[in-house]
Structure formats: structure tokens, C-alpha cells
Amino acid sequence: MCNRRTSHPKPSVTVLLPTPCPIETLVIPPDLDGRTGINRAQNVIAQIAAQNDLDAIRAWLARVVDKKTTFDTYRKEAERLLLWSLLQLGKPLSSLTHEDLLVYQHFLSDPQPGAQWTANGGRKHPRGDPRWRPFYGPLCATSQRQALVILNVMFAWLVQAGYLAGNPLSLSRQRARRAKPRVTRYLSPERWLEVKNWIQAMPKETDREREHAVRVRWLFTLLYLGGLRITEVATNTMGSFFCRRDANGVDRWWLEVLGKGDKERLVPATAEMMAELSAYRHQQGLPPLPSPHEDTPLVLPIGQSRKPLTRAALHLIVKQVFSGAAQALRARGDEYTQQADQLELASAHWLRHSAGSNMVDQQVDLRLVRDNLGHASLTTTSQYLHADDDRRHKETDEKHRIGW
């Protein structure tokens, strides 16, 4: 396993402190690799060639290797449990019991010792960085449930594959009492105004600064007005914008998004969004409006490159904006410290939640909000649904605004 050596000058000894490391570099001793795990299936013809827990996890992950977001999420949860089982319990993953998983759920709410499990300051470090840790802080109740759901899927698959005899999470599948549906990870109108003001005040003295400022404004427009996920920004192109004339002869622009689960949806490209798109394209030396099937990424790197930015690069831009806005807020006095701390926790997905909250606050029909955020089917083309789409566009355009 990964070890961090800490030397003490007096006396001259070396203490080995186990440090979690990514599973791609993990080396597990034979007595902990799961070959003789107490939950290994016996007298069953296995459907996978895995002889140990690490190979079994890799076989499970290989099913989703072509879906980066899903793969990263699944790997994260499997990796966390495997490392916890090895380092905290000193037992193989294939020896975990139902009681162990109850302890693990409690661990998720406060991974301790913090220096061993949590990245310093909650920062995300590259997987090859010695500062990398499996956690960035305690998991909220929703994230704990998501982790256990994913692990339940993994255990069930390993049972089906003939690797495990049983699923230690299957006894925990009773539905938990649902909390009142309330989104907490979103920006209040006051915090959102702080972010917009910070973006508008970004330096624009050099060509690079101007290009970056315009790009940030366009990115936040997509995330807020479009309610897009950051992965959707990374993977869709400007050629997905198209114009359609409604029954009243009004030209309405739409953005066709291929999103989570390879599902398509139509996002109303409001007048504000199209104005921001034109400004961004002008800054890039492009015509004001995109052409059909144009392969220009929705957000471009600084400079001459036309390659799409990665999800990680987009995430970094968003986090830098929130961090800058938080610092500006904190500089106004100690009474703003709490609000600044909350703002620094924000991510791109908070903008999606903020978009939904704003549309609801502005009394956009809940069914239209649902469709805007990604639950509408594009397979039906009847006149009735077509007219309903136009009403959705009209209400979104009138009531959901960014107000730069």
C-alpha cells in the first residue's frame, strides 16, 4: 500500500504512516487483496476473470469507461470504500459485512483522521499529486446516500458476476424517510449579485484579460440562463443552436443539448443568451450567429486554439470566480465572513440550482422548469407539444433573466 515515511532525528527510526493513494497506483498485500475474502463466492462459475478485489473493481468500472462523468463518480466511491476497508479496518473489501457498511456510512459524515483522509483546505489535487486525498471534507446526507447507492450497485454487480457470495448493503435498502424537498446548494439573489459584480469588474487592460473576462461572462451565462451542467458545456458545440419560427411568426432560438444519460433536451436560448453569445463570438473573431452543425465548442481556450475545454478546466474557471468574489466580499468586513465562506464552497452545479430557484421564484410553470433543466423528451413532434415548447420559450425569456 502507499506509505509516507516520516523520519525523526532522535532516536533514528522510521515510522510508516499509511497514506491513501489512487487505486491505479495502489499495491495491496496478499493477505488483504481479497483472494480469501470471507464473502467470496464458492462453487460458482465466475463471469469475470478477477482474482482479487482490485481487479474486480476494475472490471466493474470498465463498463462505464466511455462515460467520463459516471466513471469518475463510480471510481471515487469504490476507491474510498476500498481504501477505508484496508486502512481503517485492515480487512479486504470482499470481507466487509453489513455492520461494517453501517460504520462506513458514519465515517462518510466525518472522515477522520482528517490529515489522512481529507485534502488540505478542501482543495482538489491531481491524482498523481502526493497531497491527493479521497475526500475534500465531510459528506452531507444527500452525498452519503448517493455513495451508498453507487456501492450497492457495485456489490450487486459483483454478486451477479459470481465474484461475491452476497451484497452486504442489500439489508440497508429500506427507503429512508425523505427530508423535505429543499435545495440548499444555490446562490441567494444577494450572493448571485456579488458574483455578477465581480465578473463585470474583471480587469480588461490587455487582450488576454479582455478575452478571459468575456469568456467568463459567457460561461456563467450558459450555466445560469441555460441551467447547463458543466459537462454539457464541455461536450456540446455552438452548432447545436438553431432558430425556429413559432405560430405567431416570432423567431426563437434554441440550444439542443446532449446531456446526462445521453438524453437530449431543448434549452430556450433567450434573447439575453443570444446577445451574450454574439458578444462572445465577436470577441473570438466569429460571425455573430453560429451556422448549423458548426463544431466550435461552447467555450474556447484563451488564444487561437479551437479545442474544447475539459470539464476540469471549466470547473477551475468557475471556482476561481467564486473564490475571487468571496475574497472581495470578505474584504468588506468581518460581518461578511460567513457569506464569503459559503460563496467559496459554491460550484458550477450551484448555478444550475440557482437557475431553477430563480425560475420558480419568478413563477415560471414548474413543468417548464422541469423541461428546461433536462427532463423533456425530444421524440414527440406533435403540434400540441410544439406549441407548448413555444410557451416555455416565451415564459423563460420573459421571466428568467441574468441582468448583466
UniProtKB/TrEMBL annotation:
Biological process annotations from GO:
DNA integration; DNA recombination
Q: Does Metal-binding show up as a keyword for this record?
A: no
**GO MF annotation terms:** DNA binding
Presence of the UniProt keyword Cytoplasm in the record: no
One GO CC term on file: cytoplasm
Positions of transmembrane segments: none
The Tyr recombinase domain extends over 182-397
- Taking the first listed entry, what is the main subcellular location of this protein, grouped into a coarse class? cytoplasm
PROSITE patterns reported in the protein's UniProt record: TYR_RECOMBINASE
Q: Which UniProt keywords apply?
A: DNA integration, DNA recombination
Q: What is this protein called?
A: Tyrosine recombinase XerC
Location in the cell? Cytoplasm
The protein's matches in Pfam families, at most eight in alphabetical order, are given as: Phage_integrase
